[in-house]
Amino acid sequence: MHHDNLADFHPQTILQDWGDGDAFRLADAGTGVCIFGATGSGKTSGPAKHLAYSYLAADFGGLVLCAKQEERFQWEQWAAETGRTDDLVIVDGQGQWRYNFMDWEAARPGEGGGLTINIVAILSQIATAVSGRTAKVSAGGDRFWDDALAHMLTNLVDLPLFAGLRISLPLLRSIMNSAPLTALQTEDEDWHEKSVCAITLHEGDEATVKGDADIRADFEECQTYWLREYPALSEKTRSIVDLTFSMLLRPFVTRPLRKLFCTDTNIKPEDAFAGKIIIVDLPIQEYRLVGKIANLAWKFCFQLAVLRRMPPEGGFMRPVFLWADEAQNFVTDFDAEYQAVARSAGGCTVYITQSRESLRRVLGNDDAVDSLLGNLQAKFFCQNSGGTNDWAAKLLGEHWLHVTSTNVARGSNDGTQQAAGQESRSAAVSRKEERRRFIEPSRFTTLKRGGQQNDYLVEAIVYNGGNQFLDPAGGHGEILPHKLLTFRQR
Ligand SMILES: Nc1ncnc2c1ncn2[C@@H]1O[C@H](COP(=O)(O)OP(=O)(O)O)[C@@H](O)[C@H]1O
Ligand SMILES: [Mg+2]
After folding, report:
1. Above 90 in pLDDT, residue 310?
2. Among 399, 403, 449, 473, which one is most buried in terms of CB atoms within 10 A?
3. Ligand 1, closest atom to CA 38?
4. 39: which DSSP letter?
5. Near ion ligand 2, which residues have CB within 5 Å?
6. Closest CA to 295 of 314, 276, 282
7. Among protein residues, the one whose CA lies closest to atom 11 of ligand 1
8. pLDDT of residue 487
9. 379 and 276, same structural domain?
């Protein structure tokens, strides 16, 4: 079921009819989705599955990151049921689908100086995520390692480019492994003859000596780094930079990732723009660090591709989703920045996670969490406990409520002494206005979690930015900032 007519992706297209005139539209997908809920609350089999069906049925392309082994099979089933099987691309350890992102970046026309920046960005994004740090968490000192690493990576990627070589991860690793460790070594003849770093420096020298003066000056900067700055780094700095780099690189140059990322290219992020659904079936559950690196590499390259996507002449762009269940495994602080811009490029993020805290643990502070969640406008809350419920209740806000109360006042409070049994009592019925939460935090603890005991129904309370929903119980046309949705698991 392919739409050849791009006008089919009109922003007002209804993806899900929520009843009472409410709907989730294509434009809502573009402003991002986050689904919260305890483990077993029905996130995956409830709101996530229904969103996936509607995205697939509407012919979205996408990238699916995998934390668990079952996700691939789940998507195969969802795609089959929506007629999208032919669009599935399963990137797995077999290596049938390969993406050499360095070659792909290098081959893009008109990029020039952007190439180093993009490749360094890809590598440092993965490195920081893998080392369990993010730039913003970093308490003082870590920021320094990140900068030292980025500086090293920039010089590392630049060097073979000056020499006119085709850059690859194995080449970068060889340069790094043969870089001089002391000033003395840079005068050693043996080092000059045998070190890949030295040989590449010589080739870079020859290639730039007679050319453009600016390029020559840049080369000399790079040369100074490898011959002077790098050997002069303190033992501690260099060992951390080296260790981070080899942790990052080793998986790429060994099985199974070498074949997937360091050979040729027969699938690329841009294929999602033509409707492909790319599943990174190297789940973290099974592949651990290697799986995380593979997923992050695909994720970041996909994000870059979306950010530089050009709108078609007339009509609308095919939306593409970036999907991550157990998203705490994949979030980085680039995501907020990405989603803020991605909406205008048809990028539709769907992140599914237990709680605000699970994001906070990875992003390190509340500001980073707020900035990510501020850019994922539609929030679905499934059954949950803990701080997420308080935050959700606060997010939905308060309203004025008419409260009828009966006060029984005892006269002893007026300061006069009264004999026992002679207390005066006055009862009064009063009506007043009180500020109340639309939803109390405890309401989220009782939402239906699916399974037989709930007739396979999953409940979620949805909040969609400024969207207003008619209160189904109100009868007076009261407007609510949220809506209770019920999803069938089967
Ligand atoms: N298709 C299904 N039919 C019936 N029960 C299901 C189905 N899928 C999941 N469940 C059950 O429903 C509950 C919620 O599952 P799930 O959607 O996986 O939760 P979560 O993704 O929030 O961890 C679990 O108890 C699970 O065993
Ligand atoms: Mg789940």
Report:
1. no
2. 449
3. 22
4. T
5. 44
6. 282
7. 451
8. 97
9. yes
With b for 16 or more beta-carbon neighbours within 10 A and e for fewer, the 104-134 pattern comes to ebbeeeeeeeebbebbbbbbbbbbbbbbebb
Same domain, 286 and 302: yes
**Distance from C-alpha of 159 to C-alpha of 230, rounded to nearest angstrom:** 14
Number of domains making up the chain: 2
Considering the domain architecture, whether residues 91 and 231 belong to the same structural domain is answered as: no
Residue 124 predicted with pLDDT over 50: yes
Which stretches within 270-323 are classed as H helix? 284-307
Which protein residues are within 6 Å of ligand 1, measured from CB?
37, 39-46, 449-451, 456, 489-490
Q: What pLDDT is recorded for position 52?
A: 98
- Residues 231 and 287 grouped into a single domain: no
Q: What separation in Å is there between the alpha carbon of 80 and the centre of ligand 1?
A: 20
213 and 297 co-located in one domain: no
Question: How do residues 142-177 score in pLDDT, each as one tens digit?
Answer: 677 778 888 999 999 999 999 999 989 999 999 999
Q: End of a domain among 393, 417, 436?
A: 393
183: exposed, middle or buried (C-beta count within 10 Å: 0-12, 13-18, 19+)?
A: exposed
Tell me how far the alpha carbon of residue 457 lies from the centroid of ligand 1, in angstroms: 10
Nearest CA to ligand 1 atom 25: 40
Q: How far is the CA of 452 from the centre of ligand 1 (A)?
A: 10
Is 163 a domain residue?
yes
- Domain holding 106, by residue range, is 101-252
Please indicate, yes or no, if residue 234 is contained in any of the structural domains.
Answer: yes
Residue 475 lies in a domain: no
Query: What pLDDT, on the 0 to 100 scale, is given for residue 400?
Result: 78
CA of 44 to the centre of ligand 2 (A): 4
Average pLDDT over residues 440-459: 97
* Within-domain flag for 274: yes
Average pLDDT over residues 61-75: 98
Q: How far is CA 143 from the centre of its chain?
A: 21
Q: Which of 342, 371, 393 is the last residue of a domain?
A: 393
Mean of the per-residue pLDDT values of the chain: 89
